[in-house]
Amino acid sequence: GKLLFPGDGSVPADRWSYIESSASYSQFFEEGRTLGYGLAVNGLEGRLPLKLRYVEPGSPAAAAGLRRGDTVVSVNGVSAASLVAGGDYSVLSPANEGETITVELNTASGRRTASLVAAVFTLTPVATTRVLTLAVGKKAGYVMLKDFIPQAETPLANAFASFRAAGATELIIDLRYNGGGRISTSNARAS
Description:
It is a single chain. By secondary structure, this protein is α+β, with helices and mostly antiparallel strands. The protein has helices at about 20-30, 60-65, 80-85, 155-165, 185-190, and strands at about 35, 40, 50-55, 70-75, 80, 100-105, 110-115, 120, 125-135, 140-145, 170-175. The mean pLDDT is about 90. The strands form four sheets. It has a four-stranded antiparallel beta sheet. Strands 9-10-11 form a three-stranded mixed beta sheet, with helices on one face. A two-stranded antiparallel sheet has the order 1-8.
């Protein structure tokens, strides 16, 4: 924490950088796995409603049936309003496997509560690919790329090959949930 710029009144505090252990780095960027519950919220906007922005396929959150767009009512009994007001979402980032959180949600089918147990799970860096027909009649390949990790390279190459085979002349790369990653992976995709 002391290495991060705390802000000085004219330049805001660095909220994007972080420090992690080499084991955690290797697990994510080399093995393509991570420790967590598998959910992300729209908390950085600092306003309600607090919604699930992304649910990682293969995660405890996905196994519990949580979905993008579900509205968080509370986490471990702390209201979404309190979480947003405090700007502290660390409860969603476990330190160890086996930690548990209870999330109360409003979903399309009503209010529900889910208990999530932190686990190490395999990431899905390329979650969605499809060919779209645009209004002008052209075809576009659409790919959602979440993680720039080596495990993304083969699915991306396969997606691009299928786009070409389908006659797509346009490309849409969705990076909305991308937190960055390896330059080697971005170079492989750029070429």
